[in-house]
Amino acid sequence: MPSILEYAETEFSPLAEKPFTDVDSLLLSQFSYMNLSAFEDELKCENKIEIRELLKAERFEKLMFHVRDTKSNMRLLYAMASSPRWRNIKIGNFVEKLCDQSEEQFAAITVYLDDDHACAVFRGTDATLVGWKEDFRLAFRKPLASQEMSSVYLNQVGCKLPGAFMVCGHSKGGNLAAYAATWAETGVQRRITDIYSLD
Asked: What is the distance between the alpha carbons of residues 117 and 162, in angstroms, rounded to a whole number?
């Protein structure tokens, strides 16, 4: 069975020709682990950029900061930025919070698949110590700060999205996706078509 990297490098069908799959949700979940604060200015407020615009060598070091397995993630970035399936798709609404004192680690991004469909993607536990400390707290404390932030994020973004949308995340990100969708406002919740809580 091919890996998500092999899928990203060999699946060239645009989403208009081959609809979004479970594997695509996993690919986007992995993509969310990249340190998109490297493009903080471009992703402020309502700004959106195409995935191919992330290929800026001078920002690679920051883009991969606190990212596990840099080599594989760089390979994923190149595959997505060069593929007709992903390169023109836009991302926006990037939010990130990392606080040692309150032990909070949260990040989310919205991927605009076309004019009518989007996917809110929640990052899982990153490579920071505070991220792991918060992860362990999932076992005995609720709600976590990141769960509450995921709910706020989805309600704020969901109100602005033009049509139906999906929610996804890997590991803790999957927990956040499910939590946010569960506690979404009714008008937002009705437009969620799929929830991918991976691994």
From this structure: 8
Number of residues that make up the chain = 199
Q: How far apart are CA 181 and CA 101, in angstroms?
A: 28
The answer to whether the beta carbons of residues 87 and 113 sit under 8 Å apart is no
Distance CA 127, CA 150 (A): 19
Phi, psi of 105 (to 5 degrees): -140, 115
Distance CA 40, CA 107 (A): 12
For residue 93, with 0-12 CB atoms within 10 Å meaning exposed, 13-18 middle and 19 or more buried, which class applies?
buried
> Model confidence over 94-148: pLDDT tens digits?
999 876 666 677 899 999 999 899 999 999 877 666 665 676 666 666 788 889 9
Q: Is this prediction's pTM over 0.85?
A: yes
